[in-house]
Every structure is written in structure tokens, then in C-alpha cells.
Amino acid sequence: MTSLTAGQRLPLATLGLGSSFSVQVHCTLSGTDITAFGLKDGKLSDDRYMVFFNQPKSPEGALALTAQGVDTAFSVNVQTLPADITEVYFTATHDTTPVGQAGALSVTLGSATFDVKPHLKAEKAVMLVRLYRHQGEWRLATVAQGFDGGLDALVRHFGGEVAEAAAPAPATPAVAPPPAAAPVNLKKERQRVLLEKAEREQPQLVSLIKAASVSLEKRGLGEAQYRVNLVLDISGSMYDEYRSGSVQALAERALALAARLDDDGEVEVYLFGLKAHRQGALSLGNVGGFVARMDIKLEGGTHYSPVMTMVRDDARQAGHRLPTLVLFITDGGTSNRPAVVKQMMDAAHEPIFWKFMGIEAGRVDFDFLEKLDDLKGRRVDNADFFRVPAPIRIPDGELFELLVNELDSWQRDAKQQGILR
User: Fold this and answer.
1) Secondary structure of 379-414 in HEC code, one letter for each residue
2) Domain range annotation of the chain
3) pTM listed for this prediction
4) Per CATH, domain 193-416 is 3.40.50.10420
5) I need a labelling partner for 328 at 20 to 30 A (CA). Which of 24, 100, 196, 368 fits?
6) pLDDT tens digit sequence for 262-310
7) Distance between CA atoms of residues 381 and 410, nearest Å
8) What single DSSP character describes residue 168?
9) How far apart are CA 369 and CA 387, in angstroms?
10) Is 283 helix (H, G, I), strand (E, B) or coil?
11) What is the DSSP string of 297-312?
């Protein structure tokens, strides 16, 4: 087996490859997406040549995804690729973690292997290798370069850049050339994939995702991107809400928002009573019966501050890849109010918006949450509060309107203050 080094360029024939061969990517970092991009003059001008798990082959089958997982494989037939596909990049991207944190990352073509891992640092999107046409033959270039910005930077690199110099137009063309295809927006592509996955696996969520979209569009947030956190009260007084299925319904609506806001379509779930707990990620793959599987042990108190600390710490650990929308569900006030006030004051400097939802069951005093909503002296107003009666029967459209209320004004103010880019 031949070992390749970064920056090499060599004909495919020297690797013992003909016109049809396999490209294999070995990556041990869970959650990494391996994608092949067929480009025309450096641009992804036709999204049918973005080959990945939801679009496993190009129109004529010259690029095809044949295996997925730790070992991902593509079949390639350069002879049947259209003439205007001048190069093919194989890439690895991860939503939250630098790809270099993989225990192993390598690409194998024929008798040669390229170990990518030693060349990586903090990149979340990496161009692994490149196939390209050169003087009538196909060649391989070992790249191992990427972007700290992940998918955003990859979109700009493959689809968002303007050519430095336009080719001179013919003096009198007999037929007007067809308009160039719009560059592919990978964020929208991921959201399309999530909606199609919901249609296949969780069809009951499709109407919720569309309702969430309507509320976001109304507030000019159709292109917004956020991580979504769901923070659930597990104090003893919440028993009826868990038993009735109301909390499961809220989890599904949080996931519908995430399918529109976050390109990974997941919700990080937290629990709080006397203590704070991480409950893992809610996704389209596990949403059915998610709350029942948590097997919650209700606790005899309500403390906001520990779970707020946990949420803020995790957002920092994620590198504030996206701003965070926290859906904070409770049916009562908190002990140690001064600590919570300090949390809100400090968090006003961070890209986190707190949406507090109070469930009115019996005689509940939400004066403290109303105070947090109107807290003076913050750098920006980073919170909103609303209440709903128990049992929770609020129409979905109205609930989504409440869940995104003030998110647009916070986003505008946070950008003005330099909290958001």
C-alpha cells in the first residue's frame, strides 16, 4: 500500500486506477458527513452533483455513494461524468466538532492511502482529496485543507464566490446562453433533507414544522439559524403534565422549531428540579416516546440557576457555533432568586435568548418570571416570558407565535451590540 502526502498531484494511472474505481473514506468521528461535490470551474452549479446520504448518486450514476458509516465509499466513473464537471472534491464536515478530533481519518484509492488526520487542526469542514481533469487525463490532488467555519465556509467556497474575471462574451451570439444555475445553499439543502426525513419517519411532525416556518417567516427569521435547547421542570408539581402527554407534545414542537432553525435538526434536552441534568439530544430518529423513555424521577424543589449554568457552559463548549434559543418550561418560581438574576445579567453578553414558558396549574405566582422578562440594566433584553393554562391545549400556530416572540428584536439588538455577527 502506497502512502500519500499532502499536496501531491499525480495521474490516476500511477495508482493503478482506470476510468472506474472506488474512493473510500475511513472516519471514526461520529456525526461526520462525507460528501462528494462535482464542480464546474470550481462552482457547485448543479446540486444534483452533490452526492451524500440523501442524494446517493448523480443523474447518470458516475458518482454514487455505495457505503456509509465509519467506512464510507463512493464509486466513481470519470469516463461517464459530463464534460462540464471538471473536478470532484471529497469532503468531511461536522456540525459541532473539529473533524481532526477523529481517532482516524484517511482516504484510500486503489493501492494508495492518504492519512488526513495529521494535517488538521480546528477545521469543521475539510476538503480531503480532489479529482481533476488536466490535459486530457484525470489526476488526484491530496488536499487536507478546510475551514474553521464549517458548512458556512464550505458554502462560500463552492457556491458563494464570484469569479475574479469574466470570460469575454461572443460578439453576436446566435443563441443566448442559458442562465447560470444558482449556487447551492447547503443550509437550505440540510433543512430540505430534514423535512423529507420527517415525511418518511415522523409524518405527524410535518404540519408542526410547516407551522413553525410560518411563525418564523412572519418575524423575518426565515433564514435564521439557532441551536435549540429544551429545559424541562421535573419538580413534583409537574406530575400531571408528564402523565398527560403534554410534555411529550412540547418536545415535539421544540423539535419542529429545530428542524427549521438548526442544520442538524436536534434539540439538546435538560432537566431541572433540585439539581440539573443533561438528557441528551432529541431528534427525528428518537422523538417517538422520548419523554416516556426518560423515566423521570420527579424532585422536590425548583432551582433555575444550576441548569442555566449548565446550558451556558455547553453553549460555550460548542464554540457558539450558532446562537442558542432556550425553551425553558416550568410550572413555578425558583429558590435563590438573586443567583438567577445574576445569571440573566451575565448571559445578556452571550448569544443566548431565553424563552420562559409558565404552566398555570392552580394558584401559581409567576411574578419572578415577569420580572426577568423586564429586568433592567442588561446589555440587551435577552428573555421573554409567557404563560399557558394547564392542561396545555393551546393551538400550534398560537404556540409557535409565542415561542418566537421577541426573538427577532433580540437578534437585531444583539447584532447591534456585537453579540452576534
Assistant:
1) CCCCEEEEEEECCCCCCHHHHHHHHHCCHHHHHHHH
2) 2-160, 193-416
3) 0.62
4) no
5) 196
6) 867 889 999 999 999 999 999 888 999 999 999 999 999 999 999 999 9
7) 6
8) P
9) 10
10) coil
11) --BS---HHHHHHHHH
> How many CB atoms are closer than 10 A to CB 195?
19
Encoded amino acid at 108, one letter: T
Q: Give the CATH number of domain 2-160; options: 2.60.60.30, 3.40.50.1110, 2.40.128.630, 2.40.110.10.
A: 2.60.60.30
**pLDDT exceeds cutoff 90 at 392:** no
Question: How far apart are alpha carbons 291 and 271 in whole angstroms?
Answer: 11
Rounded to whole angstroms, the Cα distance separating 191 from 183 reads 16
Residues with Cβ within 8 Å of 107's Cβ and at least 6 positions away in sequence, in order, are 23, 24, 25, 26, 90, 113, 114, 116, 128, 129, 142
In terms of DSSP bridges, do strands 105-109 and 20-27 run parallel, antiparallel, or are they unpaired? antiparallel
Q: Among 80-94, 190-204, 346-360, which stretch is predicted with the lowest mean pLDDT?
A: 190-204
